[in-house]
Fold these 4 entries.
Entry 1:
Amino acid sequence: MSVHVEVDVTSGVPVYEQVRAQVVAHVAAGRLSPGDRLPTIRALATDLGLAPGTVARAYRELEQAGVVATRRRTGTVVADDAAGGQDSAAHSAARRAATAYVTAARAAGLTTDEALDLVRGALLT
């Protein structure tokens, strides 16, 4: 996996959920495509300093959601239908808007949590 995953053990969000959410975000943003291989559970756990069971839970939930598939000999890969129709014009426009928002939020000096809080608030209106 050529994308970056990091965890914050001091966060109130469970670590397995942080891993799961980041993989989903990478798929949604197009940084991971169907067929892309994720690191083994043991390798990712070692890289992140986590117990293998924690990464295994994240992968299990990703598989149950249809985001990844585990295949013999190839390991865990992004599922063929993981994009779920995300190549539509509407999705592309939303992706561009999200990228523009992130650029503006970073330029304004917002933390990730502050930027996400603004998005969550906007989604509730």
Note: Strands lie at 68-71, 75-78.
Entry 2:
Amino acid sequence: MYPFIRMFWQIWKYRKAPRLTIFDTHVSHHMCLPWDIDIWMELNNGRTLTLYDLGRIPMAYRVGLVDVLKRKRWGLTMAGASVRYRRRVRTFQTVEMHSRGAYWDDKFFYIEQSMWNRKGECTSHIVYRSAVTGKNGIVPPAQVIRELGVDEVSPPAPEWVKAWIDADTVRPWPPMQD
């Protein structure tokens, strides 16, 4: 089940936090609870993605994106992700999560997130491809940025983000057509 109570807690917790720009880092803290673990007694890989939601959604509020989505009746969807897992997160361990925008192109926003343990070690890192959607499909990120009241162009894509975009472009779709 989706952790709605935890999500509402994170939104409420940061409701009065200072505004962020799309490239500022939102820092939040999350505990691995017993229902977040897998049979190896560590944070489940699927649940990791859900916990990343708990950092990304409050970040969207702080950037002002949620207000724009409500006003324009737009939606937000994920269009891809690439994650690296490097350290185990065990039950009742707390992680510090960092969330920020990394880049945007003509269709998508790229969001970078990471989790850090108390030893200062990165446990996982993810880049998401996200789209804002309207009644006619994907809303160009440049239009979304204007609606945020920001006069900004995207910086060049970080090399590792560009490599992922390029690799995903040549990946077959639909997959596994036997």
Note: The radius of gyration is 17 Å.
Entry 3:
Amino acid sequence: MHIGLIGLGRMGGNMRARLRDNGITVTGYDPNPAVTDVPTIAELAQAVPGPRVVWVMVPAGEITTGVIRDLADALDEGDLVIEGGNSKFTDDAVHAGILTEKGIRYMDAGVSGGVWGKENGYGLMVGGDAADVERALPVFDALRPEGPREEGFVHVGPVGSGHYAKMVHNGIEYAMMQAFAEGYELLEKRSDLIHDVTGTFAAWQRGTVVRSWLLDLMVLALKDDPKLAEISGYVEDSGEGRWTIEEGINNAVPLPAITASIFARFVSRQDDSPAMKAVAALRNQFGGHAVHKA
């Protein structure tokens, strides 16, 4: 199978490598000439045989919408576009509408795995028609983790559902990181009693109910910098937590833990706290997100 991939940054570049390692031919485009395979989106369309599958992996918002408009001009009727960035689920109807006018198919894909996905595989949540999902299954199987398909891949529902599921996933992630971070701060505060904070987190990695990949990443961060002295406690948010809370309000679903976690990030921008340093370190570990140096 031969696909096009637009966006070769931290995620997209690793996805291209994983796809190629699993037998998928990939022609990639990126504005960065050091990583792109072709100089323009139009030439990408020429390089990929029809009916084409093109995966879009660029920053959400106007950049994604611009790429969708470019693809509407470059692709042909019957081609399929998969939008895998962290777009808001309400944008999917807009993007699908732009492409449908030209007879081009559209799917959305929530993608989790961060900078570790090349090695471990990506969790995939996709929205679209069943026939389009079936058509793209070789791509999804190449990207997802090894093992049973249902443990790393789900066809959630219609267009928009993949990004909706990813939004909720990231809202949960916010709350989990905040819980680890608050525990870290409390352990650090009692240095008279707790002499090995890093070892305490490491001891939770097996046999405990809080063991998880996020815990493993917390241990990695603490081994690199036990006091998190090199990191500022300033933590960004990329939108999904806010959208999850908005949906909670719109549907009268109480989300106290997720809501508290995003307000804690707002607090981090006003006051340098050990807990927020831990959240910043976790985001850097799993997603390669930039940190503010102390």
Note: Residues 167-287 form a domain with the N-(1-d-carboxylethyl)-l-norvaline Dehydrogenase; domain 2 fold (CATH 1.10.1040.10).
Entry 4:
Amino acid sequence: MARENDWEFLDDRGRLAAAATTPSRPVAYIQAGATLFDHGIRPVGIFGSNHDGDAADPAKAGSLPIGDIAYLGSGTRVEADAVLRADPDLVVAVAYGTDQVYGLDPDTAKYIEERVPVVVFDVGQGRSLGDVRDRFTALARSLGTDADSSGALELDRAEGRLRALATAAAGLRILALSPATPDSVHLARPRAWADLRALADCGTGLVEPAPGAGSSWSTVDWTVAASLRPDIVLSDVRANALPVDRLDAIEAWQPAAGGARLVPWNPEIPCSHLAHARFFDAVADAVEASAR
């Protein structure tokens, strides 16, 4: 007979999630679900945020087979009863520097946590890419698996490759942005994003928008974005962003569009070695091609 609280895990809120047996049926925020899947753990359901729609966003899903996993809604449209009907024995979510579960209404989160163990990881500005990755790895190991462990070698290789290329191509300008409308664009502040800080640590030249309002983004018109003369553009490809195939029609962006290499960017990248290795390789490919 299993003893009480045979499984326990302390999350980033300082709250202890506990269960009589090791959980095997997690429901997760889509970013967390994609991370778990890279660790060999298949969620029984996923949910999105208020930025998402009626279907799972493929750009956020990583390797998740989203057609085969129940999508439970997004943001305030997620119903607690729908989550509980998936019969989860664990909910895994993220937060941005607070105790609030991202993607769930506070009352919905409270109702669920009174009935199911909940683990929340902080992915906000105060955490490095490695910190968040290590926390998910710790959870995966507590759940009895870590299929992503081999990805550590891939990530070391990809980081080393990017460092070497960035050194050889010093001076290349990388701009991360999220297309908003044909008239406006959100420019990422690199220090606000763990993946962009990691790129900077590898020696890449991230363009810093002008000081102003917005801790994570600087919202400007496309003329301002084009004036930054990027060699490489990391463009947000999440469903809430303007599709990248519409950028060519934006006249104010044309001075930059012709000379800049476009790299698809998911600001909510899965927090696994494998996902991060793929991201570093994609940026390294663009640096290599731009330096020719």
Note: The radius of gyration is 20 Å.
